[in-house]
Amino acid sequence: xxxxxxIGFAHGRSQGVLITIRRxxxxxVSNIVYLMExxxxxxISVTEGRAKTKNLRRDQRAQLYVxxxxxxxxxxxxxxxxxxxxxxxxxxEVVDELVDMYRRIRxxxxxxxxxxxxxxxxxxxxxxxxxxxxxxxxLRD
Length: 141
Fold this sequence. Notes:
Blueprint: H1 3-10, E1 15-21, E2 27-36, E3 42-47, H2 51-58, E4 61-67, E5 74-83, H3 93-106, H4 113-122, E6 125-138
Antiparallel strand pairs: 1-2, 1-4, 2-3, 3-6, 4-5, 5-6
Helix pairs in contact: 3-4
């Protein structure tokens, strides 16, 4: 499967599965919400201290699985991830990026941005930037 074909399929969707590598080399799987740009670069909000975040701080390799509404159509992206530092202040760059992601994924504003910003700091949210290098799967016309 061409990477561009997989990106075309996954762009505009927002739910997927992130696969990271545990210390013992077994996969660790997490349901996630993502924001994919037309070039395939993808951002995901994760929490510092969770398994996927710890795994990616140790090993940047990851996969992103995206399925269609039917079971028989899907794309799997191989790539690497970079992690921001945890959100530290309601007005820092990480929180600003999380606000942008929220707006673009949800298509609406949060009812209380101050509450949201403080929650991102309290939860120690991190922006995971995923960069796909190849893809495989099954897409039907």
